[in-house]
From TrEMBL, chain A:
<dbReference type="InterPro" id="IPR004000">
    <property type="entry name" value="Actin"/>
</dbReference>
<comment type="similarity">
    <text>Belongs to the actin family. ARP5 subfamily.</text>
</comment>
<protein>
    <recommendedName>
        <fullName>Actin-related protein 5</fullName>
    </recommendedName>
</protein>
<feature type="region of interest" description="Disordered">
    <location>
        <begin position="409"/>
        <end position="444"/>
    </location>
</feature>
<feature type="compositionally biased region" description="Basic and acidic residues">
    <location>
        <begin position="363"/>
        <end position="379"/>
    </location>
</feature>
<feature type="region of interest" description="Disordered">
    <location>
        <begin position="358"/>
        <end position="381"/>
    </location>
</feature>
<dbReference type="Pfam" id="PF00022">
    <property type="entry name" value="Actin"/>
</dbReference>
<dbReference type="GO" id="GO:0030029">
    <property type="term" value="P:actin filament-based process"/>
</dbReference>
<dbReference type="GO" id="GO:0031011">
    <property type="term" value="C:Ino80 complex"/>
</dbReference>
From TrEMBL, chain B:
<keyword id="KW-0804">Transcription</keyword>
<feature type="domain" description="Vps72/YL1 C-terminal">
    <location>
        <begin position="88"/>
        <end position="117"/>
    </location>
</feature>
<dbReference type="Pfam" id="PF08265">
    <property type="entry name" value="YL1_C"/>
</dbReference>
<keyword id="KW-0805">Transcription regulation</keyword>
<keyword id="KW-0539">Nucleus</keyword>
<dbReference type="InterPro" id="IPR013272">
    <property type="entry name" value="Vps72/YL1_C"/>
</dbReference>
<protein>
    <recommendedName>
        <fullName>Vps72/YL1 C-terminal domain-containing protein</fullName>
    </recommendedName>
</protein>
<dbReference type="InterPro" id="IPR029525">
    <property type="entry name" value="INO80C/Ies6"/>
</dbReference>
Length: 725, 139
């Protein structure tokens, strides 16, 4: 039930005589103004002011209260945010206060040269005299008000309810407001401010807490979680649990009860246009198109290949022709003959011919045969190339020895190459075999396989992340030693750099023996090898991991329809990740809140949940009773027998029972406790003030402008209203 | 003379869209019941509003220590800290939290939450801590 503002222009201002006071409830959330003696305030609006620029004219205008967002689009609100005149519950910004009063009086239909009615305005408990005097000055000087009275809204509410019979003349009023919560004891119908108690937690803090929690839980919907929406949510859905711990356990178990208590807010979402299941003809048609495209590509490839083959054949023919001609030409003419063709010698022609033959064979698509050919070519030539190896040393001449060395060297290298080729071949076979096995495993038990693969992927991604973090040492302030002193040198160096520093410092460390003996031994120079940046062995490890990770990711992407390769996918309830690889569904645009419903108003009872080191509402009652100056036993019992809940923030369901339970814990066993809610927690303060202002003794409680100037600030400080008239 | 001219000039209504005028949401610049208009009090161009004292300064200027301590004033009616031990709830889920993470000082309820804590970026960690006023403020 959001608060509704009433801001229609009142037309009967002139009907009221100058004696009729105007009653203003100047609250942290809403401003209410009306005539004394009436049951409802005439004008209600939110106590905020905005000064946006009108887009069309460029003028800066003032807008008081909250208005229809559709109309706000005519204004440029980027530079102006809603501002309140309050700091906690004290008015400090009187320029804003003036705008608000302007609007209030104007809506009441005020005309004439001044506001010619006494004004009763509410303030906070023990308002600092500066704020009070500035308010009085504003009313006297700018509006020409004849007389002013200040009162406390909670007190008015209590008096009103006392008249209704809901509470007694001795009692306690508990008023959770917008920014603060007060507990004021009443003795003989008068508030005892000495024993009053104030905690700086109110509805504002509850809303703010809810807003922060939802924003942190759904970071990608942060822009839709606005203040106004959060307040609406709070008013509609939040409640106070009778016992926080058991309620939390209920949700932790996650049973049906918890489900029922969880609310879900569906954000507007447009499903992506679904193509619909393609019908049979569609599929067939698409398949046919694909087939045709494939065919075309194959034809093109064929054509290219055949043209290349033709080219090569032509070249081969040319070369053979050349060779033939060479055979026919005489010895001495070879040189000039060859000069024309561009080849230097016969061997060159032959080698290029061999190359062309090879490429021709490749183009024709006989790779294996070609390899075998070259292998064969190598082997026989090996036997003939290295004839000298088998002959023992002492039978050879020095030149032949040199020849032999060369041949030995060539033989070993070629053998090495062969062995490498063999190993590669074997590895290929091995991989093939593994893939085969994998396929079999997959076919026989797809689910299990998928699970295993996913688990492996997760592990690997974690390891890679860790490795990365370990290397760069992260930009997180992870270590405790990083929290103090800001950025330390330890943050910037990774493991390898640290190692290098360590080596350098140990090497340079002067052991105090006088001489520097570094370098005397050969092993010392190994230090540089260890330090060398090229020699960073750390690089190899993660590469293997990363390669493995890549392989598994690609595999998963092939076979798993739900795979998301983001390494930070956490399928966990508190925070929802937007999966970027599957299409967004309706659930992604839902904001679910269950625990937050009762976690947020809990701060009224436990302010240290938000870091405010004060007592909660239930304990405040105890503190207040303890602070009472005259404590007779009967008085305490009468106090707890009539506890009134008033103020906007007491509208949470369940607060009454919780407060009763809380107070029972701190009072002696068996003492009477009765907690009642005000008849209308929101409007009762105004109503009480209106009734008060309508009474005949009211003028005796006001002070006029002359009073204000004559009696001075000290008198103003001590000014309090007498509530029992 | 000058003031009258100013007053007259401000009487002319601003040119606005019809629905805005109908909603009467904009505060008129001239109000008859005011002795001093806003634009006179706070002329354009001057630094407006920056000279207002905040609550802390107001309280300080009140000099409550000069007055007898049993007289109620804004400061001494404030509530004391709680006598009960602080209730520890998980920063992320709101359940009861017997454990706290040594690295980030966040409180958590079980191992799943803990895994999540270790994955979120530092900015989120600080925002969670700020919820209970425990964030790290680097000066």
């Amino acid at each position: 039930m959001p608060f509704v503002s009433q801001t229609s222009l009142q037309s009967d201002y002139t009907l009221f005589s100058s004696n009729c006071p105007i009653v203003i409830d100047n609250g942290g959330s809403n401003f209410r103004i009306g005539w004394a003696g009436e049951t409802d305030p005439r004008i209600i609006f939110r106590n905020i002011v905005q000064r946006p620029r009108h887009k069309a004219t460029g003028e800066t205008v003032t807008i008081v209260g909250d208005h229809d967002p559709a109309l706000m689009k005519y204004f440029d609100c980027t530079r102006s945010s809603p501002r309140s005149a309050f700091d906690s519950n004290v008015v400090y910004q009187f320029e804003i206060m003036e705008y608000i009063l302007d609007y209030g009086f104007e809506r009441m239909g005020a005309d004439g040269s001044q506001v010619d009615h006494p004004v009763l305005i509410t303030e906070c408990v023990c308002n600092p005299v500066q704020s009070r005097s500035k308010m009085a000055e504003l009313l006297f000087e700018t509006y020409g008000v004849p007389s002013v009275a200040f009162g406390v809204d909670a007190a008015f509410s209590y008096k009103y309810n006392q008249q209704l019979g809901i509470c007694d003349k001795d009692g306690l009023v508990v008023c959770p407001g917008f920014t603060t919560t007060h507990v004021i004891p009443f003795v003989d119908g008068e508030p005892v401010y000495k024993a009053c108690c104030r905690t700086n937690i109110g509805g504002f803090h509850v809303s703010d807490y809810l807003k922060q929690l939802l924003s942190l839980k759904y970071p990608h919907h942060m822009s839709r979680i606005t203040w106004e929406k959060v307040e609406d949510l709070k008013m509609e859905h939040c409640y106070i649990a009778t016992d926080y711990a058991s309620e939390a356990r209920l949700f932790q178990k996650g049973g049906k009860e918890a489900e029922d208590k969880t609310r879900c807010w569906q954000l507007p979402w447009v499903p992506p246009p679904v193509e619909g299941l393609p019908s049979e003809e569609e599929i067939a048609r698409k398949a046919a198109i694909k087939e045709r495209q494939g065919q075309r590509l194959r034809e093109m490839a064929e054509a290219k290949r055949s043209s290349r083959i033709n080219e090569l054949e032509n070249e081969l023919q040319g070369l053979e022709f050349l060779l033939q001609q060479l055979g026919n030409v005489e010895e001495k003419d070879i040189a000039c003959f060859l000069a024309e063709t561009g080849y230097v010698s016969k061997q060159e022609i032959e080698s290029s011919r061999a190359k062309v033959m090879q490429s021709l064979r490749k183009a024709k698509g006989e790779p294996k045969g070609e390899q075998a050919e070259t292998e064969e070519k190598v082997d026989p030539s090996a036997a003939e190339k290295y004839p000298l190896i088998n002959i023992s040393d002492n039978m050879l001449t020095p030149e032949q020895l040199k020849e032999k060395k060369k041949q030995l060297f060539l033989k070993t290298t070629s053998e090495g190459r062969q062995r490498a080729k063999q190993k590669r071949f074997e590895e290929e076979l091995e991989r093939e075999r593994q893939n085969q096995q994998d396929e079999e495993k997959r076919l026989e038990n797809p689910e299990l396989y998928l699970e295993q693969l996913r688990a492996k992927h997760r592990e690997l991604s974690e390891k890679v992340e860790q490795r990365k973090r370990h290397k760069t040492n992260g930009n997180h302030t992870n270590g405790n030693h990083n929290l103090s002193g800001g950025v330390g040198r330890g943050e910037r160096l990774n493991a390898a750099q640290k190692e290098r520093m360590r080596l350098l410092t140990t090497a340079a460390f002067d052991r105090g023996k006088g001489e520097d003996t570094f370098g005397a031994r050969d092993e010392d120079w190994q230090l540089y090898k260890l330090m060398s940046k090229d020699n960073d062995e750390d690089e190899e490890g993660p590469d293997a991991y990363e390669a493995e990770l890549a392989r598994i990711s690609s595999r998963l992407q092939d076979i798993d329809p739900n795979f998301v390769s983001k390494s930070e996918l956490v399928p966990f309830q508190p925070v929802v990740e937007v999966p970027s690889f599957r299409p967004l569904s309706k659930e992604d645009f839902q904001i679910v809140f269950g625990v937050e419903r009762f976690r947020c108003p809990e701060i009224l009872f436990h302010p240290n949940l938000v870091g405010v080191d004060q007592v909660g509402v239930d304990e405040m009652a105890g503190v207040s009773i303890r602070r009472l100056p005259s404590r007779s036993q009967g008085l305490n019992e009468r106090m707890t027998n009539s506890i009134l809940l008033t103020g906007g923030s007491c509208l949470f369901p369940g607060i009454r029972e919780r407060l009763e339970a809380g107070i029972r814990m701190i009072r002696p066993c068996g003492s009477p406790i009765r907690v009642v809610r005000a008849s209308d927690p929101v409007l009762d303060a105004w109503r009480g003030a209106a009734v008060y202002a309508a009474s005949l003794q009211f003028p005796g409680q006001t002070f006029s402008k002359t009073d204000y100037y004559e009696k001075g600030e000290d008198w103003l400080r001590r000014y309090t209203l007498r509530y029992t008239l | 003379m000058k003031n009258k001219d100013l007053a007259l000039s401000h009487k002319a209504p601003l040119q606005m869209e019809p629905e805005v005028i109908e909603a009467e949401m904009v505060l008129p610049t001239y109000l008859s019941f005011k002795k001093v208009q806003m634009h006179e009090k706070y002329p354009k161009g001057q630094a407006r509003g920056r000279h207002w004292k905040h609550l802390k300064q107001i309280i300080q200027a009140e000099n409550y220590q000069n007055y007898p301590p049993d007289e109620p004033n804004y400061v001494n009616i404030e509530s004391p800290p709680s006598m009960n031990p602080c209730k520890k709830i998980c920063d992320i889920t709101g359940f009861e939290a017997p454990y706290s993470d040594p690295r980030t000082t966040l409180r958590y309820a079980n191992t799943e939450v803990f895994k999540h804590i270790r994955l979120i970026p530092n900015e989120s960690v600080q925002r969670y801590l700020a919820l209970r006023n425990a964030q790290v403020v680097l000066k």
